Amino acid sequence: MPFIVWTNELSVDVKMLDNDHKRLAILINELHDGLMAGRDSKDLERIFDELIAYSRVHFAHEERILAEAGYSGAAAHKQEHEQKIKLLLTLQALFQIAKESADYLDIMDQLKEWLFMHMERSDKQFVAHLKATGVDAILAGWDEPE
């Protein structure tokens, strides 16, 4: 069974954002699976780097959508994203120096909590606004997500 199992309850009901969230869950699952399988530390570091890079891509998607939808909390949400990236970088540094299995598992639990809090608390705050302002029309106007 995967470390993070996607369920409909995790959905924010915006396909692009759900797809981003699923990709983040996949990367956390890959990191967990690699850790459990005893994969080389370089492989694990690469996965963690990819998790951070994709988090930045996802946050850019959200920030663009919120700006185009005229969401009043967009600036505060962007600041929250900056804090979430800082936390990821801290967890990555801890992951790189961890020695004990318990340390690695604690970091994995924090990554899971990081993703769930982002989806369930942060993102669900703006979904009603996006739906009311026609998020599908906003996204349809995008050639390529930035």
Helix and strand layout, with pairings?
Elements: H1 15-36, H2 41-68, H3 74-97, H4 101-122, H5 127-132, H6 135-140
Task: Report on the biggest sheet.
Answer: none
Count up the helices. 6
Q: List the uncertain runs.
A: none
The secondary structure category is mainly alpha
CATH architecture: Up-down Bundle
What would your notes on this structure say?
- This protein is an all-alpha fold and 146 residues long.
- It has a single domain, classed as Hemerythrin-like (Four Helix Bundle (Hemerythrin (Met), subunit A)).
- Helices cover 74% and strands 0% of the residues.
- The protein has helices spanning 15-36, 41-68, 74-97, 101-122, 127-132, 135-140.
- Helix 2 (41-68) packs antiparallel against helix 3 (74-97) and helix 3 runs antiparallel to helix 4 (101-122).
- The chain is elongated.
- The N and C termini lie far apart (33 Å).
